[in-house]
Amino acid sequence: MGEEEVISEEKARDISLKDLSMKLDEFAKARDWEKYHSPRNLLLAMVGEVGELSEIFQWRGEVDRGLPNWEESDKEHLGEELSDVLLYLIRLSDICGIDLGDAASKKIVKNAIKYPCTRIPMKN
Questions:
Q1: CB-based burial of residue 42 (10 Å sphere; 0-12 exposed, 13-18 middle, 19+ buried)?
Q2: Cβ pair 112, 59 in contact under 8 A
Q3: What is the pTM assigned to this prediction?
Q4: Which residues of the chain have pLDDT under 50?
Q5: How far apart, in Å, are the Cα atoms of 76 and each of 4, 12, 19, 73, 122?
């Protein structure tokens, strides 16, 4: 099975943060890049990718949800830059010994307490 087949097969299923983490670890080990993956280096690389992501939106003004007026190539480019940020974030959290899924879940709970819902839900 070729690499492209594996990628398309994975697209059909949900990929967890842990799955991505393992793939990133394998990727770094295979290239002997672990020595470069210090928290500082990963953070700076991620900030660079956030800059590239920002450039995509820089002169567009506000955009509609779902990006209905964007070309498919622009959406693909956006997906690549979002992925770069996500992958660096996952790698950084791993190198720092932080379970990102657990930390994010706890943060959602904290935010719910800090910013309680004051609306009364509408009933049908």
A1: buried
A2: no
A3: 0.83
A4: 12
A5: 17, 17, 22, 5, 37
